[in-house]
Design brief:
By secondary structure, this protein is of the alpha/beta class. It has 15 helices and 11 strands. It has 2 domains: 3-7 and 14-196 and 207-216, P-loop containing nucleotide triphosphate hydrolases (Rossmann fold); 224-323, Helicase, Ruva Protein, domain 3. A hairpin with a 4-residue loop joins strand 3 and strand 4.
């Protein structure tokens, strides 16, 4: 397929994105970047971790996305007393048949909202690992495939640490993106006040996209062209997270571990998805830079020295982007 044919395919398969954005805009005020990241996760078939203080519409955004798609949706409120079986299901004994039969859990839906995921202990968090990576759940001696598409959209509060359990690095690495959600502007908050400070029923989204449309868009995303120079740029960025002193000597003692090859793959994939959403058949270096923070911020582990200096991963990524030559 040449560039012109791919450009035509992008035009045919991306129309639903504008419709989904319009529907979500009826519910959400502002948060355009959050909406874009949710759609990128959908296009890349990747899970997303949303981090922000309470009340910033993280849960509302996920519900608005699910309402605009012809897909099933389940919400889990993660609490300390939640059990793995409450998510994935369990084997139930039937005395009449004298055998165990599977009782599939509510995780067998297209979109899963794991609300305040860090409030559940490690045992419950680990119940999601197989589902997130393999798109299947094993009960007894059988594995049951999850429906397609299948996305875990998790939220967590970064400031409330009492009664929470930090997500292990192995699970964090399975999230395609970690998106930080900020406060609205003053103008946006006035609109929120006018729209939501009422006893009337809040607006809801209508279904405007189907799983078949999402699947066709994913096929087009996979054919977006990445020039060899940009591929090399992506690899250089990832290697700079592992050997930061090679990019910036001031980072020598701040990074304990860099991004895994999963970070390389996801940075290229999300750059393709961003190009697709912008109607282009090729990736630019700016696409890579725009996605670098969301893809890498949860994959870089800092040293105690960095924490003492109050240096966060976003600062490290900023320095690496400033130092690695752009093709």
């Amino acid at each position: 397929m040449n560039t012109e044919e791919l450009q035509e395919e992008i035009g045919r398969t991306s129309g639903w994105i504008a419709q989904v954005k319009e529907e979500m805009g009826r519910v959400l005020v502002g948060q355009d970047r959050l909406v874009d990241r949710l759609l990128i996760g959908l296009l890349c078939n990747g899970h997303i971790l949303l981090e922000g203080v309470p009340g910033l519409a993280k849960t509302l955004a996920v519900k608005a996305l699910s309402g605009s798609l012809d897909a099933t949706f389940a919400r889990f409120q993660f609490t300390p007393d939640l059990l793995p079986a409450d998510l994935v299901g369990t084997m139930v004994y039937h005395p009449q048949a004298v055998k165990f039969e599977p009782k599939l859990g509510p995780i067998f839906n297209n979109l899963i909202l794991a609300d305040e995921i860090n409030r559940a202990p490690a045992k419950v968090q680990s119940a999601l690992l197989e589902a997130m990576q393999e798109r299947q759940v094993t009960l007894g001696d059988r594995s049951y495939p999850l429906p397609r598409p299948f996305l875990v959209l998790a939220t967590q509060n970064p400031i409330d640490q009492e009664g929470t359990y930090q997500l292990p690095e192995a699970q964090l690495d399975r999230f395609l993106l970690k998106v930080t959600v900020g406060y609205p502007t003053r103008e946006e908050e006035l609109v929120i006040l006018d729209r939501m400070a009422t006893s009337a029923a809040p607006p809801v989204t209508a279904i405007v996209a189907s799983p078949a449309q999402v699947s066709a868009a994913r096929d087009a995303v996979n054919r977006i062209y990445i020039d060899p120079a940009i591929r090399n740029y992506i690899v250089q960025l990832i290697h700079a997270t592992r050997h930061p002193a090679s990019a910036d000597p001031s980072l020598a003692n701040l990074v304990r571990a860099g991004a895994s090859p999963r970070g390389t793959i996801n940075l290229a994939l999300t750059a393709r998805a961003l190009a697709f959403m912008n109607g282009r058949a090729y990736v630019t270096p700016q696409d890579v830079k725009d996605m670098a923070h969301d893809v890498l911020r949860h994959r870089i582990l800092l040293t105690y020295e960095a924490e003492a200096e109050e240096t966060n991963t976003d600062t490290v990524i900023d320095r690496i982007l400033a130092k690695v030559p752009v093709p």
